[in-house]
Amino acid sequence: MKPLLAAASALWAGAVAAQGLPDADIYIIGELHDNPTHHEVQADLVGQIGPTSVVFEQLTDEQADRVAPDTPRDAGTLNTLLDWEDSGWPDIAMYAPIMGASDAVIVGAAGAPGDLSAYGLDEPLPPEQQAAREALQADAHCGKLPEDILPDFVARQRAIDAQFAARTIGALDRYGGPVVLITGNGHARKDWGVPAAIARVRQDLRVFTIVQGEAGHFPPGGDMVLGLDTPAVPNRPDPCDAFR
Known about the structure:
This protein has 9 helices and 6 strands; from the N terminus they run αβαβαααβααβααββ. The protein has a 6-stranded parallel beta sheet, with helices on both faces. By secondary structure, it is α/β, with parallel strands linked by helices. Helices cover 36% and strands 13% of the residues. The protein is globular and about 50 Å long. The termini are far apart.
């Protein structure tokens, strides 16, 4: 067992005081993208795990290739190097500490998907899962999506999960383990996210997934759930405003 960092943030250390990180080939660490505490936790865990590579949902492989072993991993350097301000992601100051928490190779999970035929994306989901996933997509889009396009949104989510799985496995095969994937909580869930996609093609791999909640609300599907005392982001814009 890998003991958790003694210096970990008090916001989450109490919730996992009796737990630890088991040895794994791949650690998937989820987030709410705009919650700075989640990124602090990710940086702490990356420092503890000491991965060979860290795969980021937020980067294409072309962007990741710009981060050389000797590249300073401070926010200012990375902001310019990665064209971050045009990316649509939250402030690079949240992500730079994760990239700088170790000397791991930085890998991009976004970009051209490549061959995903092994992931069974053309196979229908069980009806109950399909319905649940469509309901989540409808809720995520404030009930404003026409019902007939919800299956397309579910299919897109499945393809993204498969792509992230393929990029993470590729990093493991190239650099060895362990590998960390930094991604949203929805992609980190075990039952139908990236962990399930990895299990479909590589059952030999040990995958450990962490999801993070806030303000007493917790996402499903993690081997470990953090964020018992994490506050919600203040003044977060209402995502449904875009549909009004």
